[in-house]
Amino acid sequence: MSSDVVRGRFSWTLLVPLAALVGLVATWGRKPGDLVLALVALLLIGAVLAAVHHAEVVAHRVGEPFGSLVLAVAVTIIEVALIVTLMVTATGQETAGLARDTVFAAVMISVNGIVGLSLVVGALRHQFAVFNPEGAGSALATVVTLATLTLVVPTFTTSASGPEFTSGQLTFAAVASLALYGMFVFTQTVRHRDFFLPVEAGGSLPDEDDDGHADPPSGPQALTSLALLLGALVAVVGLAKVESPAIESAVAAVGFPHAVVGVVIALLVLLPESIAAVRAAARQHVQISLNLAYGSAMASIGLTIPTIAVASIWLDGPLELGLGTTEMVLLLLSVIVAVLTVVPGRAKPLAGGIHLAILASFIYFTIAP
């Protein structure tokens, strides 16, 4: 990669996150007008694109699967902070199902939306989307276990009224979630790292020393990109929150349920991972796409539930975690289809289309319950 190209890319990917952070500081806690909201939307899109670029720089430096893990965990930590902030600022019934709705939306978007798009793009460009079934299967099994334990079981427990955990049950779920997530990260990054690497090398990257390998960025470049990645992600989540009143007004204007707001915000927050996953699939790195998708779903549950468990010590009001019947049916359908997709180790465009159909069903039945 030439120095001119590096400087060109660095220029806009430096300025956009900084501008987005400035915009976030200027608009946070205020009620901006339509013109400012339009500018905020442009900054939000720019921050998403910058986050994808810096995530790829960091991933190139640390290698897979660490690269996809960095992006998934970074987005989720900021998302969790946003959830806690909303729960602190809102009161009563407004916050009762906030964590559940946000986590479930993130799971459905990741497991069906990101996976579906990646499979379609990968299979259309390379005939089949090829990945490692052992790695993808391990990730999927962890996601399914976490989702069932934290989102399904509360609907059927009897110690507390409604779809809620008691304090003891919530503590158990939080500890189990952290333990499962920690075990998976150890498996992914240490014990069986090779299961989560791309099956085939796709795409072409610059190789200035002709050693047959892409040249990674230097340490200072990677650290700079890591800092800018975190800044861009903070801007993405924060600006999505700034835009949320406008989204709420638009949703109310067309008569949609309030739960649609959570889905829209989740879509915005997961945009960096979605774009990064699709770009990886286009380069025939579908395993990286699945690492991002399942890693995002896993981190959303494995980090949110423990954080909410701690926050519930000082937060008042009920905490509803259990899903309704329709949501559980869609989750079960997602699990069955995901298992059938993962087991062969390769997928046709049809598999991706089925996942996207499930995501469309989730969004439709959220709009028209």
From TrEMBL:
Domain of life: Bacteria
Localization (cell): Membrane
Name of the molecule in the record: Ionic transporter y4hA
Transmembrane segments: 12-29, 35-54, 66-90, 102-124, 136-156, 168-186, 222-240, 246-271, 292-315, 321-343, 350-367
The entry's keywords: Membrane, Transmembrane, Transmembrane helix
InterPro entries found in the cross-reference section: Alkaline_pH_Ca-Antiporter (IPR052946), NaCa_Exmemb (IPR004837)
Bilayer topology term: Multi-pass membrane protein
Ranges of residues in domain Sodium/calcium exchanger membrane region: 36-189, 225-367
Lineage: Bacteria, Bacillati, Actinomycetota, Actinomycetes, Propionibacteriales
GO MF: potassium:proton antiporter activity; sodium:proton antiporter activity
Native organism: Nocardioides euryhalodurans
Primary location recorded for the protein, binned into one broad class: membrane
PANTHER family xref list: SODIUM-POTASSIUM/PROTON ANTIPORTER CHAA (PTHR37958), SODIUM-POTASSIUM_PROTON ANTIPORTER CHAA (PTHR37958:SF1)
GO cellular-component term (any): plasma membrane
Statement: the UniProt record of this protein carries the keyword Transmembrane: yes
